[in-house]
Amino acid sequence: MENIEDRTNTENFKSPSLLKNIMFLFGVDTDKNSRISSSKTAKLCSAYQRFMSVLWIIYFLHFVAVTFSYEIRSPATDFRESISRKFADVIAFLLWLTLKSRCQRISDLLNDILHLGRSLNVAFKQIWDKIGAFVTVGVLLTIWVSTNVEFEERECKSVLAYFSFNYFYVGEGYNCKIVCITMLFYQFATYTLRTCLAVLYVILCFHYSKLLHKLSKIPYKVSDSSVPNSIRYHFITYESIIKALKSFENTMSLPIFLIEIGDCIAMFYCFVKMDPFHQSEERWFLKNYSLSGQFFALRAVLSFLCVSLAASRVHEACKNAKDVQEEMMKKLIASDEEHKKEFLLLLVTHNSPPFTLSAWGFFYFDRGLILSAIGSILTYSLLILQLNTK
């Protein structure tokens, strides 16, 4: 019976392995330092990661070559539109570089959150890992389908020439099949890491807020002789959570900044290209690519909202913990018992502002951010639409 309980507890306090495996497949190995360096598995994983690094460098060089050859030098292409459209490739490569340099820090913060979960008996539910992996793969497959469903043979030939610099030719009738496979690899390379990391970020934010809510709900009595120990436990645990959140912020703020900027540009670009006021001369875009444009806009909006709401939930949980600390201080003051040290501990903790996650310090995640950010995007989009019609 004890073995069954131990095995259940071990399963409850595991990190999100499926999401980590997806990141590993695309060149981010968060478990590399946990393996024995001389083992065969470690050597194979290291060789695979070096291979993925080469592929990422090829991906970036191909992006630079395509952008310079077709986007910048072509007189028929608008430079601003090219930058907006190709920004996802830049985000993908920068995100890989950033995560590659922070593998150990990501591993440490996952261990920290599991340790805090054990101390507060808050398990990381593996169902969220499975849902996160399902969402990641589902979004990627939907992106792939939406960008391929409307291609004709003539368009497939042009796309193939675009990606291969006119050096790759196939027989008539096979262009769309080759493009379908090419777009699968391209879309997965461009959107896998950013989708997976956004999902992981949302899950971890919910878990941090759950830890703070659990700490705030721990009962205590001022008249009880265990008050000093209870307040010290609250103080130490709260400081441990805040320390873990600061580590989380330092590790994830730059990657999340890249993802959020990418989502904002995608919303802006799709809104302009969808031409809601029917003023653009590019009606061919809506005729041929309306489905993919709508899905990319929806994906960007949902990604931005989910990340922002999850991060703002941490801020709200910290505010709730501050309210609980204030109630504890009021009861200490009103009680006949003298707990000067405990009161000072609570006072120091309560006087610090509620912790707020940020996107690399450029903007901070609270509920007021969401409407202002989306409103700004719509305002600038409408401005660009008006300028394009003059």
Automatic annotation (TrEMBL):
<dbReference type="GO" id="GO:0005886">
    <property type="term" value="C:plasma membrane"/>
</dbReference>
<dbReference type="GO" id="GO:0050909">
    <property type="term" value="P:sensory perception of taste"/>
</dbReference>
<feature type="transmembrane region" description="Helical">
    <location>
        <begin position="294"/>
        <end position="312"/>
    </location>
</feature>
<keyword id="KW-0472">Membrane</keyword>
<protein>
    <recommendedName>
        <fullName>Gustatory receptor</fullName>
    </recommendedName>
</protein>
<dbReference type="GO" id="GO:0030425">
    <property type="term" value="C:dendrite"/>
</dbReference>
<feature type="transmembrane region" description="Helical">
    <location>
        <begin position="127"/>
        <end position="145"/>
    </location>
</feature>
<keyword id="KW-1133">Transmembrane helix</keyword>
<keyword id="KW-0675">Receptor</keyword>
<dbReference type="InterPro" id="IPR013604">
    <property type="entry name" value="7TM_chemorcpt"/>
</dbReference>
<dbReference type="Pfam" id="PF08395">
    <property type="entry name" value="7tm_7"/>
</dbReference>
<keyword id="KW-1003">Cell membrane</keyword>
<dbReference type="GO" id="GO:0030424">
    <property type="term" value="C:axon"/>
</dbReference>
<dbReference type="GO" id="GO:0043025">
    <property type="term" value="C:neuronal cell body"/>
</dbReference>
<feature type="transmembrane region" description="Helical">
    <location>
        <begin position="369"/>
        <end position="387"/>
    </location>
</feature>
<feature type="transmembrane region" description="Helical">
    <location>
        <begin position="191"/>
        <end position="209"/>
    </location>
</feature>
<feature type="transmembrane region" description="Helical">
    <location>
        <begin position="51"/>
        <end position="70"/>
    </location>
</feature>
<keyword id="KW-0812">Transmembrane</keyword>
